[in-house]
Specification:
Elements lengths: L8 H7 L6 E2 L12 H14 L22 E4 L4 H12 L9 E7 L8 E3 L4 E2 L6 E2 L2 H10 L4 E3 L2 H6 L7 H9 L9 E6 L4 H16 L3 E6 L4 E2 L17 H17 L3 H11 L6 H13 L8 E8 L10 E9 L1
Parallel strand pairs: 1-5, 2-9, 3-8, 3-9, 4-7
Antiparallel strand pairs: 2-12, 4-8, 5-6, 10-12, 11-12
Helix pairs in contact: 2-3, 7-10, 8-9, 9-10
Length: 328
């Protein structure tokens, strides 16, 4: 299943005949601007705000191993005014020249799935450039694992934001480089997989993760706290800890399992805390893929950035947490 390094799927896919509809950027104009020039400037601004070194800042954990090439990213998917700056920390680590295929894994917010879903589209459109779907890799996944994948309708595809919110960033980071073409995309909508099926999907994707030409991007926000999210756990209320600090501690307990590549620990943490990490299943799949990969002991995971949409203080408040991380 592993792609050899000298193959160029970007050139192959871009030159291949297209079959299938185009996915429209359905959240453009609401979750982010639909104006191409404004969108490019906005994304460039977020990327430029990420320091190249530690930037003299003490409030962030900046990648200390920038010379290594990322193998996977975890980044948020809220509206850009909320999570765009945090996502930039992950995208700033990418070396466009080193990537020839992108796997994009996101959770399903609107449709209950017990499997993973693949798009019927051949192109994902954005206001700043279109992204070709790697139909050949899709066919390989479906043929070799027919029980693990289903097809999503275009309506389901366009209703879902977890994949779309990464597309402009991908188009900008790669389209604005001197690489030959934006790499083909392998979008996978991850359902509410059981632990057993997360392991199975991880083993399916592990050979692709082992290929240094592939980049995995996992889409996830972290804690959704508040009555409107039906989640008001306050771990620090008895110790006088501010609510937003308690939420951060809760999130970072889960992030510690991710950084430690501890798939079992992350699964147990979710079961115990019920933390509303919407991308818990895509993250679980990534951790299982790492677990099944050839170079597990060599892989290093680093938290790059953690933010909250607002600092919740009372039980009437609400917030969503955003984190960016990188796997080397």
């Amino acid at each position: 299943m592993t792609q050899t390094v000298d193959e160029d799927p970007a050139a192959r896919v871009m030159s291949a005949p297209r079959s299938g509809p185009v996915r429209n950027p359905s959240h453009a104009g609401s979750w982010y601007t639909k104006d191409s020039d404004d969108l490019a400037r906005e994304l460039d601004g977020y990327l430029n705000d990420v320091p190249d070194g530690d930037g003299g800042r003490d409030d962030v954990n900046v990648n200390s191993t920038r010379k290594k090439k990322p193998r996977a990213l975890i980044a948020p998917h809220a509206g850009y005014s909320y999570s765009g700056p945090a996502a930039a920390w992950a995208y700033k680590t990418i070396d466009p020249k080193a990537v020839r295929r992108i796997f994009l894994l996101g959770p399903s917010h609107h449709v209950f799935l017990t499997q993973c879903a693949l798009t019927k589209c051949s192109v994902y459109a954005t206001p700043i450039g279109n992204l070709a779907i790697d139909l050949e890799t899709y066919e390989k996944l479906k043929t070799e694992n027919p029980d693990s994948f289903v097809a999503m309708t275009q309506t389901v595809d366009e209703d879902e934001h977890s994949l779309e919110m990464h597309l402009p960033y991908i188009a900008r980071v790669f389209g604005n480089s001197d690489s030959r073409a934006v790499p083909p995309l392998v979008p996978i909508l991850v359902g509410a997989l059981s632990s057993k099926n997360e392991k199975k999907m991880g083993s399916i994707l592990a050979p692709f993760l082992d290929d240094p030409c592939n980049l995995f991007i996992v889409s996830s926000d972290f804690c959704h706290w508040g009555k409107r999210f039906s989640y008001t756990r306050w771990a620090g209320q008895d110790g006088g800890v501010p609510l937003h600090t308690a939420i951060e501690r809760l999130d970072k307990e889960g992030i510690e399992h991710i950084v430690n590549k501890d798939a079992d620990g992350f699964c147990a943490y979710i079961e115990r805390t019920k933390n509303t990490i919407c991308g818990r299943h895509p993250i679980g799949v990534l951790l299982r893929a790492l677990e099944s990969s050839q170079n597990f002991s060599d892989r290093h995971v680093e938290l790059l950035r953690y933010e909250q949409s607002s600092q919740a203080v009372t039980r009437s408040d609400s917030s969503v947490s955003y984190a960016s991380a990188v796997v080397y």
